[in-house]
Each structure stands twice: as C-alpha cells, then as structure tokens.
Amino acid sequence: MSELLTERSGRVAAARKLTRRAGRDEAGAFLAEGRQAVSEALALAVSDPDAVREVFATEAAAAAHRDLLAGAAVPVRLVTERAAASLSETVTPQGLVAVCALRDLPAGRLAADPPALAVALAGLADPGNAGTVLRTADACGAGAVVFGAGSADPYGGKAVRSSAGSLFHLDVVRGAPLEPLVGDLRAHGVTVLAADGGGEASLDGLGDVLAGPVLWLFGNEARGVPPELAAAADARVRIPMRGRAESLNLAAAAAICLYATQLAQG
C-alpha cells in the first residue's frame, strides 16, 4: 500500500480522465468500480499481466476487501474518500476502482476465427442495456460482443457496472462497421440472425439453424436493426409471444434469443 492520495494527486487526476470516452481512448484504459468488477479484473490479470494497471482504494474499502487486495499483482494505492468519489460515476461510491486496459479486438480477427456464438449491437444507445447484453451474452456462452459504430461505449461506467464483471470474460469489438463484418462472418460459415419483431422467421422454428456458429444482431432500443443491415442477415427473426404484451424490451429479447441458441448448441 502507498501513501494516501488526494483528488489533486497526479495519478488520481489521470485516472479521472477515464470517466470520459475521449480520455479512455487516449489512455487506452478504463475504470472498473466495485468488488465484483475489480475481482474479475484481477483474476484476468493472473493470465494477462497487462489487463490491470493499478487499483485505488479508500482505507475503508481496503480493509473491507483485504482478502481480494492482498494477492493483487498490481499496485494498490490508498486514496481519500473525496479522491475515490472523483473517480466514481455513482451516487454512492464504493471506494474501490481498478484502472484496466481497453480490451478491444480487431474486427478482422473475429471474422477469421469466429466463436460459436457472438452478438453485434447496431446503434444500441443505452449503456445500461449494453452492459446487460454483455452479461447475458457471457451467461449464454458467447465468445464476443461487437459494438457497432454509434453504439454505447462498453467501457463507460454504467456499462461496466451493468456487465457485472462479464466485460472481462468476452472479446469486445468496438466501433466496427457492421455490414462488412456481417459479410465476412457469413463467408466464414456463420449464420447471421437479426432480431426483429416483424421478422419472417420465428425463433421457435429455427431448429438446427441455431446449432451454430451464429451471430445475433440487436438494434437500437426504439428503431431496431437498421433495414439495410437486417437485409444482409440470413434471416430476420421474431420472438413468438402468446400473451398480450405489445413488445419486449431489448435486454429481454436478447436474453431469450441467446438462451435459445445456447440450448441448441448444447
């Protein structure tokens, strides 16, 4: 542990820039706050020493999470409560923040070696939804999530929190033009399915199509998958609804589609 750093210290000031996307892109790093996120980050650092650069903790947080921090292979720096608050985007800061390296994977590498299940987000704007889709994709065994141009930044504070650590389990492609990627993946034998409430195919009728490899396209919360991108997919898929609900929100639709794919892939 080091001396107590204030919000005016150089290291804290540099880390504070990571609360903005421009700062994250410039530094190639992002902040992960709270025990769950920091724990997953430090676990990844065991196999990837470059994954985490340092951890900031208040004295109270360091005491509460002594078991987690004792074995950390990165510097753990004590900070004041005000310094910790300056690094947090929450109303109630948790006093535990890791500075982590961005995890971007080039789109070309994904196309060259596609996983059995992947997700692409087209214009998904809400960071909370972005993090929830990451968490759902992880739970269903997906290998990658692609954040198309115009989608929320998966490294923003709300998205990282909503992912509950799943951000550290998946490959992340960020800012990729989706139409060329869809074409490349289809050329490598991947079935591309666009979630669409008015789709011509029904999820419960896809059968062996879901056996993979599969890329699911999910669109903007209000507008859905752009028509030109949906047209490039192998099928537009609707979720059959027996009840009286008018529609499903994006996170719920993603969970259903990904779970059905997980079952089909065994």
What can you see in these coordinates?
With 266 residues, the protein is an alpha/beta fold. The protein contains twelve helices and eleven strands. A seven-stranded parallel sheet has the order 7-6-5-10-8-11-9, with helices on both faces. It has a four-stranded mixed sheet with strand order 1-4-2-3. Helix 9 links the parallel strand 6 and strand 7. It starts with 9 loop residues before the first helix and ends with a helix.
List its salient traits.
alpha/beta, 38% helix, 11 strands, 266 residues, elongated, seven-stranded parallel sheet
Short description:
With 266 residues, the protein is an alpha/beta fold. The chain has helices at residues 10-16, 21-27, 35-47, 59-64, 66-70, 81-87, 107-112, 127-139, 157-163, 178-187, 227-231, 250-265, and strands spanning 29-33, 52-57, 76-78, 96-101, 117-121, 144-148, 171-176, 191-195, 201-202, 214-218, 235-238.
What is the secondary structure topology, with strand pairs?
Layout: H1 10-16, H2 21-27, E1 29-33, H3 35-47, E2 52-57, H4 59-64, H5 66-70, E3 76-78, H6 81-87, E4 96-101, H7 107-112, E5 117-121, H8 127-139, E6 144-148, H9 157-163, E7 171-176, H10 178-187, E8 191-195, E9 201-202, E10 214-218, H11 227-231, E11 235-238, H12 250-265
Parallel strand pairs: 2-3, 5-6, 5-10, 6-7, 8-10, 8-11, 9-11
Antiparallel strand pairs: 1-4, 2-4
Biggest sheet layout: 7 strands, parallel
The whole-number mean of residue pLDDT values reads 94
Shape: elongated
* Distance, first to last CA: 46 Å
Helix content: 25-40%
Strand content: 15-25%
Tally of helical runs: 12
